[in-house]
Amino acid sequence: MKLITKRISFENKLFILTLLTGLLPCSILFGILYSSDLAIYAKISLVSFSLVLVYLAFLVRKIVVYQLGTLTNVLEALTCEDYSMRARVPACNGVLSEFSHLLNNLAETLAQQSLITKEKHILLHKVITQIDVAIIATDNRNNITLMNPAAEKLFSCHFNKMQGWPLKALGLPLPPPGQYRQVVEFDLREHKKKVYLHCDEYFENGVKQQLLFITDIQNLLREEERQAWQKLLRVLSHEINNSLAPIASISDTLSRIMVNKHHAQWPELESDFKEGLAVIKDRADSLNNFIQSYQQLTKLPPPDKTLFDLVPLIASITSLFEGVDIRVKAQALEVYTDEIQLKQVLVNLIKNAHESMKDNPQGSIIICCQQQDNLVEIQVIDEGSGISNMDNVFVPFYTTKEKGTGIGLVLSRQLIMNNGGDLDIRNNANGIGVQASIFLPAMDS
């Protein structure tokens, strides 16, 4: 009996109770009518009254089912994150009216909170998308769960391809758990990259996750280095020019005096005097040319970028080096950069490559062009003697050439960085020659 009672729904129990409440007195009256001799109209009236009671019982059930069904629909909509539905509030006061008011207030509150949450999500998405800092999220097993566009650009990959992959697939070292701030260096596209790595933790569904903020500080460090050298060059230029100007002026004045004056009484002294003045003038001009060459680093013009094909540009450059074995491996590839500045860099790199092969006159220079994701790479590979001191390659003033100024590679890298790219120099893996790699941003497709 208890099992049957539990299976009966609430609205059916209410219907049965209502029906029993009305039919019980009716049954008593039916017994009285059956045993007594009453008119037929009285019996019909009693039967009609019983039918009315049954109808009212069904009506009560319908009203309760409708009201509860409406409230159920509202609650179901709330669980499905649909906050647009509202419960119908009865006109009369009572528990049902209070419950409907409370349910509507709950729906309104959840709707406002949902709107605020969506607006914050949109704001957060815009910030993550537009910020220059690379952001990577990983799960508790160090698998990638999020990458923003800055991270995709830094690592030259797409999140759709890297989702679920381990963090070490990007070449990053695995950071220790907890907060972590440090400058790290790792291999990226076959050259070293310095970044500032900030790690933090957050929770998702009660599970600890990791968030990595990666700031590319390599260009910043180089810019600081360049500015430091610029300040030094300005000081050197000021001081040396202050010395060169009077030397040149005095030498010119003494030269004019010697031309206008008769010196027959001391011809030997005159000869020595003229020779000394010539030396002073020559050294002054030499120092002045030296300073003028270094001032190029402090007066880089802004790039005048245009869209052009690399193949004709490389062909025009190789034609300048007659008798040099230059092999070009490139297909039609367009770049958007300053053509004159890129040409200046390529001429300098090919010239350096040719000069490094003095001990190997049969060697060749290979120029390769290729595009990898959002980067265009131009390689100049020689078969020369290589670089013995790689740490000083981009240090101004440093040179191994007898008459070199030590600004060629420094100026070349500044010109490439001026166009939003990078220049990497390294010895070939086989121990013969040098590979110079120019990285430039590719045009968006």
Short description:
This protein is of the alpha+beta class and 445 residues long. The chain has eleven helices and twelve strands.
CATH-defined superfamily of the largest domain: Histidine kinase-like ATPase, C-terminal domain
Query: Helix coverage percent of residues?
Result: 40-55%
In DSSP terms (H or I, runs of 4 or more residues), the helix count works out at 11
Q: Architecture of the largest domain in CATH?
A: 2-Layer Sandwich
CATH fold-type name of the largest domain: Heat Shock Protein 90
Class by alpha and beta content:
alpha+beta
Average pLDDT score: 76
**What is the topology, as strand order, of the major beta sheet?**
2-1-5-4-3
Tell me which oligomeric state these chains represent: single chain
Domains counted in the coordinates: how many? 4
Task: Give the N-to-C terminal Cα separation.
Answer: 75 Å
What would you call the shape? rod-shaped
Sheet with most strands? 5 strands, antiparallel
| Rg measurement, Å | 44 Å
Spell out the helices and strands N to C: HHHHEEHHEEEHHEHEEHEEHEE
Strand content: 15-25%
Tell me the name of the CATH class of the largest domain.
Answer: Alpha Beta
How many strand elements?
Answer: 12
Poorly predicted runs? 1-5
